[in-house]
Amino acid sequence: MHAPVGRRISRISVFALAISAALTAHAGVKSPVVASEGNFTLLTYNVAGLPILVSESDPFHNMPHIGQLLNLYDVAVVQEDFAYHDDLNASAKHAYRSPPLVLDAKVGIGDGLNVFSRLPFTGFERVTWQTCNGRFSHGSDCLAPKGFAVATVELAPDVSVDLYDLHMDSMNAPEDVAARAAQTEQLLAFVDHHSEHHAVIVAGDTNMGRESEEILQSLLKRAGLTDSCRTLSCGRPRMIDRVMYRSSDAVELRATRFVVDGRFVREDGKDLSDHEAVGVGIHWAKEQRVARR
Predict the structure, then answer these.
(1) Strands 251-260 and 241-246
(2) Cα–Cα distance measured from residue 280 to residue 261, given in angstroms and rounded to the nearest whole number
(3) How far apart are CA 112 and CA 94, in angstroms?
(4) Which pLDDT score, from 0 to 100, does residue 10 have?
(5) CA distance 151 to 280
(6) Among candidate residues 179, 237, 204, 55, the one with its CA nearest the CA of residue 115
(7) In this structure, how many other beta carbons lie within 10 angstroms of the beta carbon of residue 289?
(8) DSSP 66-90
(9) Most CB contacts within 10 A, which of 15, 68, 168, 213?
(10) Is the pLDDT of residue 18 over 70?
């Protein structure tokens, strides 16, 4: 007894589709590409957390307020988080935070670098500058183990970016500029080794103004970084507090918004730090290949 014509055609069609799929897979045709993307906000802020006797602000009063305001951002990197970390940390609500540097008699004070994040991160590492200028002059940069910190932030499953938080040598004497040049070389060597082929964000207090433009251009060019302020025509290209980034073959990064956040002030309207709070919106996208079934 023969099957109806319509049923025979249906079976033939299914068989033909199965053969076509097998041939396509055998020929090595690539699977469809599905884009995965998202957005997050990032803050860089020098919180001026020097001990009260040498601070030019009022960190004992200001730090709890700063900690609360960090919650406005998905990721916050801070500098000069020296003497009042507990006050800053207590007010923040981020699920993921860098372990503060444990002080000892040899170091005396930490590097002041910390990360607060709603996004998980791993591999947090602190690196001290090999070169600095001035122990009791020129900004006294050598009194603290200033440097940079790095961690790998997970934007989504299998999507990550290496985040650097840095604080470079201050002041504008030739020796200070030379120290920043040496620090840039150290950073470039580390990024080249640690973050090869990775998407990267470098944020923090660069202390690079007009006098260090050549050094900044070298950093941007050789590390493949884009300055978010300049690419978004923020009108403040000489700002020393910067957020720079680069994409990779796997992850595209793009700054979408740049703001000097005016909310970081006290009840009386005075600034909470001697630095401005810089906020950046960042869009990320990754292409993932989805296997056919």
Answers:
(1) unpaired
(2) 10
(3) 18
(4) 43
(5) 18
(6) 204
(7) 9
(8) HHHHHTTSSEEEEE---S-HHHHHH
(9) 168
(10) no
Return the number of other C-beta atoms located less than 10 Å from residue 35's C-beta.
Answer: 9
Query: Cα dihedral sign for 118, 121, 124, 128?
Result: negative
Show the tokens assigned to 217: 């251009």
CA gap 151, 199 in Å, rounded: 12
Instruction: Give 217-238 pLDDT, tens digit per residue.
Output: 999 999 999 999 999 999 999 9
Q: How far is CA 191 from CA 117, 219, 228, in A?
A: 21, 11, 19
The first and second tokens of residue 271, run together, are 């600034």
Q: CB neighbours of 53 closer than 8 A, spacing ≥ 6?
A: none
The token pair at 254 is 């793009």
Q: Which residue has the tokens 């923040």?
A: 92
pTM over 0.70: yes
Contact present, 269 and 221 (Cβ < 8 Å): no
Separation of alpha carbons 80 and 216, rounded Å = 21
Q: What DSSP string runs through 170-239?
A: -S-SHHHHHHHHHHHHHHHHHHHHHSTTS-EEEEEE----GGGHHHHHHHHHHHT-EEHHHHTT-S-TT-
